[in-house]
Amino acid sequence: MGRRAAIVGAGHTRFGVLDAGPRELLRSAADQAFASVDRGLDRGAVGEAFLATLGFGGWQIGNVSALLAEETGIVGIPTTRVENACASGGFALRAAVRSIESGAVDVALVVGLEKMTDVGNARRRYWLGVSGDTEWERAAGLTFAGVYGLIASRYLAEHRIGPEALAEVAVKNHANGALNPNAHFQKEVTREAVLRAPRVADPLGLYDCCPVSDGAAALLLVRAESARRFTDTPVYVEGVGAGSDRLAVQERPELTSFAASRRAADEAFRSAGCERTEVSFLEVHDCFTIAELVAIEDLGFAGPGEAASLTLEGTTRRTGRLPVNPDGGLKAKGHPIGATGVSQIYEVFLQLRRAAGARQVPSAERALVHNVGGAGATAAVTICAAG
Ligand code: COA
Fold this sequence. Notes:
The structure is a single chain. About 35% of the residues lie in helices and about 20% in strands. It is α/β, with parallel strands linked by helices. It has a single domain, classed as Thiolase/Chalcone synthase (Peroxisomal Thiolase, Chain A, domain 1, 3-Layer(aba) Sandwich). Helix 1 (about 20-35) packs across helix 2 (about 65-70), helix 6 (about 165-175) crosses helix 9 and helix 9 (about 290-300) crosses helix 10. The termini are close together. Bound molecules: coenzyme A.
C-alpha cells in the first residue's frame, strides 16, 4: 500500500453556534494539533500551511491565509487559502499531501475554518448560494436544500422507495453525534420525529439537513518515513483522489450520482493500491440525508438504490458491517463549510488510533473520507490507514 504522508497531530474545536471569532477558532484548533503530537513538533519545522475556508459572511476578506501564519506563530512560510466550497478541507489536505510527497517540505499544517453564525439569514443564504450556479439555478431561487430535495425526489421515485431510508440516515447520524463531545447536535432523534418535522425542501425536512455551524479543525502532516519520530501511532495517508463536474446541476446527465465523487474514489483507490473490501468505515459528505445514500453508491460500496436498504438493515450503523459517519456526519456534528473536510480526517485520526472513546468503531484499520463541494461540482477522497 502507498504511504504518501503521515498525520501525527490533530485538533478540533466544538462545532455549533459559538461566541468565538474566526481568529480564536483557528488558533484553538492549531494549538490543539501541536499539543497533541506525542513527542512534540517544533512550530519552526512547518514548511507550508493551508487554510481551507469559504471566507463566509462577516469573515469575508482576501488574503486570509496570512492570518493562519500570524495566529499560529509561523509567519514567514508559504501559506495558501484553499477554497472549493464545502470540499475546501479535502482539497487542502490533498495539497498538503502533494507538497510533502513532492519533497518540497517535511511538515505541513492544514486548518479548516468557518464562522457562519455572525451574519443574518439573507447574507448567509447569499454566501451559501454563490457556491452553486448563480446564472440560472440561484437566479431561479434554487437553494442547496432545494437541489438536494430534487435529488431526493428523483432517487425515491427511481427506486420506488419511501422516505424511511432518508430518515434512518438522520436517526443514525444523530445517535453517533450524541457520542461526540464536539458535535453541534448531541441528541438522538426518532424516525417518527424526522418524518414529521417541518419541510425544508420536500421530501427533505428539518432533520434531513445539516445545520449552520461555526468551527475549526487542524492536522499536522509529516513525511511517512519520519512519522515514528513524532509518535508511535501515526495515521498514514495512503491515497488521495479528486474530481470535478459542471457547476450547474441542470447541465449534468444524471441527478442521483455525482461523477466527481466516482472519479475521486477511483483515483484514491488506485493511488492507495487497496480494495473496497479492505476499508473498515466511511466518513462521507452527508450535507443532506440523501447525500449519504448517493455517496455510498458513488464510492462503490453499493449499487444504485442499494444504499437505502443497507441503511435500513443497520449495515451503516457504528456497530454495523460498514459504519458510515461515526462522528455524527455533517448532519449532527455540524457543517462549518471550510472546516468539514479537515474535521472528517480528524475523526479518522482518532478512530484509527483507537482514541474515539464511546463512539469507537470496532476493528477500525482503514478509512475512506469523502468531501463534496456544492452539489457535486467538486469532490475529494482520501484513504487513510493505521500505522
Ligand atoms: N437539524 C436539526 N435541528 C436543527 C437544524 C438541523 N439542520 N437546524 C436548526 N435546527 C434546530 C435548532 O437547533 C433550533 O432548535 P431549538 O428551537 O430547540 O433551539 C430550531 O431547529 C430552529 O433553528 P433555526 O436556526 O431557527 O432554524 P432555521 O429554520 O433558521 O434553519 C435550516 C434550518 C435547515 C434551514 C438550516 O439549518 C439550513 O439552512 N441548513 C442547511 C445549510 C446548508 O445549506 N449548508 C450547505 C450545504 S451544501
